[in-house]
User: What shape does this take?
Amino acid sequence: MGIFSRGKKSPPARHNFLVKRCPECFVSLPIDATNCFSCKTRVGRVDSYGKARRPVNWYSYLTCIITWGALILYIRWAFF
Ligand SMILES: [Zn+2]
Assistant: This one.
């Protein structure tokens, strides 16, 4: 009887957020904010939970790679 009757599903939530949450300090930010005004973290676009994504920090990646590359080159130059 009631086994196959399903409850009325609510329509899927649309992601029209007006604010997003900072991933670091969870303060509410304007939806188009690129930086958190509270902790200065760079924030990306909002995800489906209303939380801002963390943008990939290419600059620090690059700095890390270059630093390691320079270190390896220096060691090779100094000792071989
Ligand atoms: Zn923050």
Observations:
- Helices lie at 58-79.
- Residues 22, 24-25, 27, 36, 38-39, 41 surround zinc ion (CB under 6 Å).
- The first helix runs from residue 58 to 79.
